Amino acid sequence: MTTHIVVLPGGGYAEHAPSEGEPVVRWLESLGIEASVFLYPVGVHHPEPHIAVSDEIARLRAAGIERVGVMGFSAGGHAAGLAALSPVSPASRPDFAVLSYAVVSMVPPTNEGSAINLLGADASLAERRSVSLEMLVSEQSPPIFAWQTADDVAVPVATLYRLGEALAAQNRPHAIHVYPRGPHGLGVSAEGLALWTEECARWLSALDHP
């Protein structure tokens, strides 16, 4: 089966972190997985980034890719999760998602920079809830691998636990990993590789051989 992973770098919905783009593609290609970086729009409000990611997934499907996954980091993790849990159309829902220290929730306490950049400073609680991943899980949600460090000061780890609880409540396939230490933005740096990539590689392989 042809698999392609769309890599979505972080950057607080204000920029794209280079360390979470092409280095991640090279790591995935070392596993024999086709991948590409998608630079979704930044400096704009929802739903523009969400529509762009969804359109890219649909474009890959139309090009003949049999299985499309998303892998996002920080704000890019939120964009990946939103594509997985709130697709624009059935064709734009990815077959799986990998969320790395993702901004899971837009409801305080959260990464306020990402929330304000995506929704604006005056967004209502209802608007924030409408794009909070833990509130979007359903019976149609695809398999999700998510990880974070417990001492991440940029994204509250409690939000990842809430996402795990929501996935469990809907009986959706998922793997949640919380590592004791490590700064936000690890990516596939030397320290990041030691933390999460081996377990993620096994999880990706299990999609082919459950």
UniProtKB/TrEMBL annotation:
Transmembrane segments: none annotated. One of its GO terms (biological process) is proteolysis. InterPro entries: AB_hydrolase_fold, Peptidase_S9_cat. It comes from the Bacteria. SUPFAM superfamilies: alpha/beta-Hydrolases (SSF53474). GO terms for molecular function: serine-type peptidase activity. Residues 51-205 form the Peptidase S9 prolyl oligopeptidase catalytic domain. This is Prolyl oligopeptidase family protein.
